[in-house]
């Protein structure tokens, strides 16, 4: 049986000023938030799903 990779329609990345505050607001509004977080040398990341089920990346760049 051949392997069929998933179709990726695109990726949206929003640059945010305060990731923790935004995630708190989104959680209060009932938005699905991925429990995974990532801290990289160039910023912090989290992921949500929009109302159509598309995955959206939120990025807070490091200060400096």
Describe this structure as you would to a colleague.
There is one protein chain. A hairpin with a 5-residue loop joins strand 3 (43-49) and strand 4. The protein is α+β, with helices and mostly antiparallel strands and 64 residues long. It is built from one helix and four strands, in the order βαβββ.
User: How much strand?
Assistant: 25-35%
Helix content: 10-25%
User: What is the structural class?
Assistant: alpha+beta
Radius of gyration: 14 Å
The strands making up the biggest β-sheet line up spatially as: 1-4-3-2
Question: Using DSSP, what is the number of strands?
Answer: 4
Q: Largest sheet at a glance?
A: 4 strands, mixed
* Overall pLDDT metric: 91
Shape: globular
Low-confidence region ranges: none
- Give the number of helices: 1
CA-CA gap between termini: 51 Å
Give the SSE string. Answer: EHEEE
Care to give the gist of this entry?
By secondary structure, this protein is an alpha+beta fold.
Question: Layout of helices and strands, plus pairs?
Answer:
Elements: E1 12-15, H1 19-28, E2 38-40, E3 43-49, E4 55-61
Describe this protein with a few key phrases.
alpha+beta, 64 residues, 4 strands, 16% helix
């Amino acid at each position: 049986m051949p392997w069929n990779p998933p179709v990726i329609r695109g990726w949206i990345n929003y640059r945010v000023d305060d990731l923790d505050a935004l995630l708190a607001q989104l959680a209060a509004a009932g938005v699905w938030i991925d429990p995974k977080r990532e801290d990289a040398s160039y910023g912090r990341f989290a992921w949500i799903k929009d109302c159509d089920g598309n995955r959206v990346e939120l990025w807070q760049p490091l200060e400096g």
